Amino acid sequence: MSSRERRSGVTAPPDYLPWSHKPAPVVVKRDLLPAVSVLSTISLFGFAVGWLWSRLAPGQLVQVVEDGGLAPLRTESYHRFDDLVLFLLLGLAAGVVTGVAVWLLRERRGPVMMVAAVLGSGLAAWLAAQTGVSWAEARFVVVGAPALGDVVTLAPRLESGWGIVAWPLGTAFAYGVAAAWNGRDDLGRRLG
Fold first, then answer.
1. Between 176 and 68, whose confidence is greater?
2. For residues 148 and 3, what is the distance between their CA atoms, to the nearest angstrom?
3. Residue 62 near residue 72, CB atoms below 8 Å
4. Could you tell me whether strands 60-64 and 70-72 are parallel, antiparallel, or unpaired per DSSP bridges?
5. Which residues contact 90 (CB under 8 A, 6 or more apart)?
6. Tens of pLDDT along 26-84?
7. Dihedral of the alpha carbons of 104, 105, 110, 111, in degrees to the nearest 10
8. Is the distance from CB of 158 to CB of 90 less than 8 angstroms?
9. pTM of the prediction?
């Protein structure tokens, strides 16, 4: 205990408390260019996930009724839900893989890289939704005008925009769990 602490009656907190030492600095300038590279690379994987979804998502069988309307066959309307859930699961899995892969970039760990990974995942999910629906429509083309009573297959579609949230959420979760599990102030970056 120093003489100043004895006079004021205040003691320094023990070293094992989190607020007893200065946190590691956040490096922004040095991580900015690699973060842009990570963001753009992750976004390109949206094309792969969109293509995979367009191949796995089931089409919906519908029957042509009077006035050219379409009526889904029995239990076929469940495929609307299947399309969205499949997209969510693919996005969540891709997000966890993305978060782990970005965490393994040891020299660049930190909040800048996490924000870049989450933004890249959001862009990738949006690209996957746009291209996946387009590729699915090309896969289930209706040739000619169907007649009354014909059964045709509609292309899978995403009826909710909430599917885009799964990929960035999975990325943030995986990266956050890895950072919390690490327990080091510098996240093991070896900045020294």
1. 176
2. 96
3. yes
4. antiparallel
5. 49, 52, 53, 56, 128
6. 667 888 898 999 999 999 999 999 999 999 998 887 778 887 677 776 776 777 788 89
7. -90
8. no
9. 0.78
**Token digits of residue 100:** 């782990």
Share of the chain above pLDDT 90, in %: 43
Residues near 101 by beta carbon (within 8 Å), at least 6 away in sequence: none
Mean pLDDT over residues 142-146, rounded?
74
Dihedral in degrees, nearest 10, Cα atoms 156, 160, 165, 166: -40
CB atoms within 10 A of CB 42: 26
Q: Is the CB of residue 83 less than 8 Å from the CB of residue 156?
A: yes
- b/e sequence 113-139, b meaning 16+ C-beta within 10 Å: bbebbbbbbbbbbbbbbebbbebbeee
DSSP 87-133: HHHHHHHHHHHHHHHHHT-GGG-SHHHHHHHHHHHHHHHHHHHHHHH
